Amino acid sequence: MSYKLFIPGPVHVSDKTLNAMTSWVMGHRSKDFVNLYQAIQPQLQQLMYTQDPVYLSTSSAWGVMEGAIRNVTKKGVLNIMSGAFSDKWNDVAQRCSLPCGALQYEWGTPADPEDVRRELSTGKYDALTLIHNETSTGTMNPLAEIMAVVNEFPDVIAIVDSVSSFTALPIKKDELGIDVLLTGSQKALALPPGLALLSVSEKARQRAATVEGRGYYFDFLEFHSNYEKGMTPSTPVIPLIYALQSKLEDIFAEGLETRYARHERLNNLVRAWGAKHGLSLLPPPEYGSKTLCCFRNDIGIDLEGLRKAAKSRYQFDIDGGYGKIKGKTFRISNMGDETDETITELLANLDVLVPEFTAK
Ligand SMILES: *Cc1c(COP(=O)(O)O)cnc(C)c1O
């Protein structure tokens, strides 16, 4: 059975993107590959608002999330935690035997820049991880305010995950002072899974050069020396790079401001739909994500029943809540290629399903 994904990742992939992947594979040491990588590089830099190189990693986002902390942590990494993905980053740091500290919030609570200042002031840290848009809880952290604090501590390398927010709103890497900005392919970019993008500052690379045990596959210095030749350290997932090139065409044809406005508008449609059904967002609304809504299941919807009916009757799926908040919350994505038409149709179908699967 095939159905359209309105879960917050992986998200629905357009036919145009899928078709782009069917081009014949090229040699990754060929001039053709160098031309492809060099052609998309300026667009990637523009989307990340950076002068730093953007590397392509054949992995899901976790590859470079783990790689980044292994490249730059010496004294310790502070993990800002407020949901499944940000909590796990601390777990990953421990599994890598890196010195690390947890700044833990309740799920759905945005990080407070004052707490970040207090933690960094201990002098225990030379790296920090932050998830801009915590997908598990639909919460957007106040990125600019947090980065302003981090920039008071020049020894701290800031690693920011934009997996579910990249290109949905501007994230100005250089202006904000982000050292490592990373994203994956299957969420905000609406590509199939398997490719990650990361931009690394010179400061982060200089740090990496002094760190032992960086490994090979995600080594910043390997990424960089290959990047200078227009290449990747090992054989990349070439079909996904074709898909990325096609997606970049779409993004620049739409225009960035139009794309940002579309995400905001569609997100507001979903929020208004929730309000109409008596559903509140898990986070405070001003920190609600622009790419998905995580609603509290205030009205006791039978989410499993609803999702089954959504798939069989209307050929779509939404998410029934992540990890420990499964069933207590549910999530609807508006990231990627969604339009006023697709979201309006989705919400009309949910208007039928929600009363049917809510106990009277
Ligand atoms: C999905 C997600 C990840 C993990 O991505 P993978 O592609 O599964 O490695 C990391 N961070 C955020 C914010 C995510 O939404």
UniProtKB/TrEMBL annotation:
Q: Which GO terms describe its biological process?
A: glycine biosynthetic process, by transamination of glyoxylate
The positions annotated for binding substrate are 331
User: Where are the N6-(pyridoxal phosphate)lysine residues found in this chain?
Assistant: 187
List the cofactors.
pyridoxal 5'-phosphate
Q: SUPFAM superfamilies, per this entry? A: PLP-dependent transferases (SSF53383)
The entry's family comment says: Belongs to the class-V pyridoxal-phosphate-dependent aminotransferase family.
Q: What name goes with this protein?
A: Aminotransferase
What's the source species' lineage? Answer: Bacteria, Pseudomonadati, Verrucomicrobiota, Opitutia, Puniceicoccales
